[in-house]
Sequence to fold (213 residues):
Amino acid sequence: MTVAANLASVRDRIAHTGRDPNQITIVAVTKGFGPAECQEALDAGLTILGENRVQEALTKMATLRGATWHLIGHLQTNKVKQAAGKFELIHTVDSRHLAEALARLNPEQQVLVEVNVPREPQKSGVAPESAGPLIDHVAGLLNLRGLMAMGPADRDPTPAFNELRRLRDEAQERLGKSLPILSMGMSGDFEAAVRAGSTMLRLGQVLFGPRPR
Fold:
């Protein structure tokens, strides 16, 4: 199957949830895929490409034209200098220290606060109970656009996704500003995320097939 055919299938599945596919932004997760697959995504109309690692993204940025890049993997503070200003959106701000490091280099950087709504120790993200103060702090330093989360590995993701939406709604009311992006939903759980209010999906295997080893 081509990326274009897989994308059509994804949009059909979104439509079956009752949401308008045109209102859902898809980030094509190109981690591990080469320039040919990235170009196929661009040709299919997927102009937002998401990378987990800064260095892999920078290498692809040098060869691909017409893409908008998002950083969707954990950002270490020693990589901030390489990342700031290179990505349209950084999804994974999860500490005051990281936010402050980004703000020193590029206070206009668009970011999301990552929240560990499944409460799984192997996942990055601020604990939901601590999310409010971090969200407020980030909003005062950077161009905060919303929240991001990964679903749980082994259970219904709906409660976690609903919690992220609640935290976003509370933050909007508290801050008096719109936080339009809810980045939640991946290849295995995107329909549940869409039903819970996701506005941005991070999709890899459902578009490209199995990731190369």
Remarks:
- The chain has a mean pLDDT of 96.
- Residues 158-175 form the longest helix (18 residues).
- The beta strands are 25-29, 48-51, 68-71, 89-93, 110-114, 143-148, 181-183, 200-203.
